[in-house]
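Morning, I've got a small favour to ask if you have a moment. It would help a lot if you went through both lines with me. Thanks so much in advance, here it is.

***
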Amino acid sequence: MTSAWQATTVAPERTHHLIGSRALYTPRFEEVLSFHDPGLAAVRDGSGAYHVDMRGEPTYARRFRRTFGYYQGRATVEDASGAYHIDECGADVSPARRAWCGNFQGGLCAVRDLDGSYLHLRLDGEPAYSVRWRYAGDFREHAAVVQDDAGLLLHIDEAGRQFGSERFIDLDVFHKGFARARDRDGWFHLRRDGTPAYARRFAVIEPFYNGQARCELFGGAPVVIDERGRDVLRLRESLSLRRRATTSSSR
């Protein structure tokens, strides 16, 4: 069943919300973000940043420097003490402060600590594992991309354990069982067990869409491949880039 807040949109001026073409409420703000479950939106006015309900009324008395949307009952806020999460009543989830906080996805949230290291938190605000990373992204399909101290990327599960044994120059989250990965030879698609889906490498690749992906050969020609790396269609031949002539004059 669709909730009423899901029918709202942010007005072009970004000062209020609409339902259809009609203003949802009377107040106007300096900025508003979209409504999120359970029907609360982050706003900012002269008093600071906070959350409002669908009447445009504050849901708690606190004010912050910045507020963001609710995800899984938690919202990221920032004030002079740092970044952290609050619950739907505006209370701190944890006393810990971070340099940056993301949003909860699948019960876990990427954050950057005050020392510059990344990790994931559980919904109770506690670390999900003991390891710290140079970078960490959101979880998707029960895996997240993290970067080690050598600058290489890998997938971890919710307990912080690595998928497979290889580490990559660049890496994406899984999408329908495949992730985009790049090694020294180029881009390819990676299976969940950490093995390449095929032997080929490309200059550019997109995620698979209904079993096929658009990729670009090193010569510049775009092709469509299947999940075994075989050409389905060549979209065009390579196009040489023309270098624009420049002239200079002295005065």
Observations:
- The two ends are 70 Å apart (CA to CA).
- The CA atoms of residues 160 and 187 lie 25 Å apart.
